[in-house]
Amino acid sequence: MARYTGPRCKLCRREMTPLMLKGQRCLTDKCPIKGKKKYPPGPPRKRRAKLSDYAVQLREKQRIRRSYGLLENQFRLLFQDALRMKGVTGDNMMSLLERRLDNVVFRMGMASSRTQARQLVKHKHITVNGRTVDIPSYRVNEGSAVAVKEKYAGNVMIEDSVKLAKATDSVPGWIEVDFEKRSGKIVRLPARTDLTSNFNDQLVVELYSK
Fold first, then answer.
1. Are 177 and 202 part of one and the same domain?
2. Closest to 203 measured CA to CA, from 35, 103, 57, 95
3. What is the pTM of this model?
4. Sheet hosting strand 145-148, strand order edge to edge
5. Domain that holds residue 147
6. Which of 21, 112, 178, 208: CA 20 to 30 A from 60?
7. Are 174 and 186 in contact (CB under 8 A)?
């Protein structure tokens, strides 16, 4: 499957916002956006044209898609699933994105970024309800138990991620985490109000409704 393998900071610069592709490092002064490269990729321009409504919608869609690490076709299929669900389409879409297994591992604090969490899942280090799951797009349900396999629980990378999660208290309310056992339980499905990111999902709905 095709996947972007270029510089991750370049994606952040294109959207002009930290996409957390390198974890907490995106919030430090090492982020190019906060340094000398406070402009999109390409040669600097003295003046840039005002974005059209379509361009604003497209940029927001790209920002959300790249933050969660989805390909274009994956994102469109997920949006179609959200469209078929009852309720507000934008809220449904964000809830489905949060329920992805790689995102859940990241939210639990077992990985410092979604990219790292995706690697844990693909390498078969994660279980759901006691069964090994190696599909990052797997959707967890209410009551699902997610855990790191015991033989990998002491990994230095996971220990560092757990320490950071404890220090920042970044675990959302819809997940109950036991850091010592390297496990967590989905106590309820994520709601739009649980997201701290300032995504404008309505722009994505407008884009795909054309």
1. no
2. 57
3. 0.81
4. 131-132, 126-128, 145-148, 183-186, 175-178
5. 100-189
6. 112
7. yes
